[in-house]
Amino acid sequence: MALRLGNREQMQMLPPSIEQYIPEDAPVRVYDAFGDTLDLKALGIEYAPDREGNPAYDPRSMLKLLIYAYSYGVRSSRKIERETHYNLSFIWLMGGLKPDHKTIAEYRRNNQDGLQKSLKQCARLCYKLNLIEGNILFLDRTKIRGNSALKHTWNKEKCQKILAQADQRIEETLRAAEAEDAAEEGEPSLVSIATQLLEPNRIKEKVTSIMAELKESGKSSVNTTDKESASFNGIHGAGSGYNAQVVVDDKYGLIVSADAVSAGNDIGQMSGQIDQAQEVLGKKPAVAVADAGYSDISDLKHLDEQNIQLIVPNKEQVKEKPFNEFDKRNFNYDAEKDRYLCPQGHTLRFIQVIQKTKNRLYTIQKSSYCLHCQYFGKCTHSKSGRKLERLPEEDLKRKLEQFYVLPENKDIYKRRQTKSEPVFGHFKKNLGMNFFLLRGRAGAGAETSLLSICFNIRRMITILGQH
Q: Among residues 263, 214, 268, which one has the least CA distance to residue 242?
């Protein structure tokens, strides 16, 4: 069988233009068209026309370059530079421009706010195209490592351990000098002693400064490389990084808003993230859905006051523990008399407000009721009788518990698995986003927004096609 062989030296009478490099239905044309829709002035990405020196690269082309590169898991500025030299789709997108890696890195670093705002314009475009409805929103998160090593994360225990080691080294150095002096082998060299003490004293100074920073900030730990990052434990062990939050629409699973927060958990995050999504779409969702990690009642109260229905189970509901007839939920609360009635009909009266939590404390009217009750040992083991705490938002907690167990709401909750969770699979498996390149919360937020834009464009191509 004859073979088709290439010939690199074959001459062409009319060399093709860059435009002819890429077919009409190539995905890169979609990214190019999306970049043309962005309002750079609103993003705060502009260039000074009176700037001296060499002409600046077109900021719109640079933004297109970053979005397209991230869409294929190319995040390193050096690798992006290489693509502009050898990858035909990159060459076409840039019109032959070939910025070096320093220019690419500087553009990304200097336009972090603009990159975050780009996602807003992307979501609003999807809303105009009826790809986002904004009626049911799903909130989820994933932990992504920051651009800093774990060894640079310090807590109080680590500081105390290193200080003790430094003190021990100082003590050993001085003891050795005293022993040498006592042996009358000549006076120990002051220069030598000072040199040996230099390193442990430097360590003590550094650690003392870190301890002062911990005390001032009130944080349990601090990373000296990326001070805004948070410490957390993930499936790959302990690390330091950011909690990437995304709000996803129910219709096609497109991302409405995204953020990166400096927190190891999701407590207190839901209201702020849903408010951000409302600001993007200019409308209030009918329903907001999240997992038990977001079940902070004081935070959810803000959304409930806006008449947004919340499908957020608490941790007890997720664990689905066996029925316990002596659970607090089976004690009847009499709001008029501000008291509880236990399953046996005995009264638990209000005692005090706990100052630390602001919870209201209730206790059995007579401890003998509990001591002589047939269920003593099951309901309570305390000789002073059963006690209950009532949250300031207890009514809302009960309301959310009852709302979650409705069959139609459980069906909506299950849709999280096909709406918000695939986002992070795409981020990490397809786009290789296992750690942030940019430091600081703003940098992590910018990269999260870039990834979200990439996800949305990929979904738009799937839904609408490439034309």
A: 263
Cα separation values, 8 from 4, 5, 13, 90, 455, Å = 13, 10, 15, 22, 38
First to last CA, the chain: 39
Question: Which of 148, 166, 173, 153 is closest to 202 using CA atoms?
Answer: 166
The verdict on 65 and 26 lying in the same domain is yes
Smallest Cα–Cα separation from 270: which of 301, 237, 300, 304? Answer: 300
Looking at the fold, whether 184 and 256 belong to one and the same domain comes out as: no
Tell me the CA distances in angstroms from 398 to 15, 308, 320, 394, 395, one per residue in order.
73, 16, 16, 6, 5
Dist CA 31 CA 74 (whole Å): 15
Beta bridge partners of 244: 142, 260
Range of the domain at 356: 319-392
* Closest-CA residue to 448 (of 292, 241, 249): 241
Classify residue 56: in a domain, yes or no: yes
Percent of the chain with pLDDT over 70: 80
Does residue 184 sit in the same domain as residue 161? yes
The structure tokens 């935070």 sit at 299
In a domain, 11, yes or no: no
Rounded to two decimals, the pTM is 0.83
- Residue 8 burial by CB count (10 A; 0-12/13-18/19+): exposed, middle or buried? exposed
Do 294 and 407 reside in the same domain of the chain? yes
d(CA 137, CA 310): 10
CA distances, 19 to each of 15, 28, 30, 85, 448 (Å)? 11, 12, 14, 16, 31
> What is the tally of structural domains in the chain?
4
The vertex-296 CA angle with 295 and 298, nearest 5°, equals: 140
| Domain shared by 27 and 136, yes or no | no
Asked whether residue 5 is assigned to any structural domain, the reply reads no
Does the pLDDT value for residue 343 go beyond 80?
Answer: yes
**pLDDT tens for each residue of 236-274:** 556 788 999 999 999 999 999 999 998 888 999 999 999
- Residue pointed to by tokens 């806006």: 306
State the Cα–Cα distance between residues 137 and 26, nearest whole angstrom. 32
In a domain, 253, yes or no: yes
Q: Do 249 and 290 reside in the same domain of the chain?
A: yes
Per-residue pLDDT, 302: 94
Do both 171 and 266 map to the same domain? no
- For 243, other C-beta atoms within 10 Å of its C-beta total 21
Q: Per the structure block, which two tokens stand in for 465?
A: 């096609």
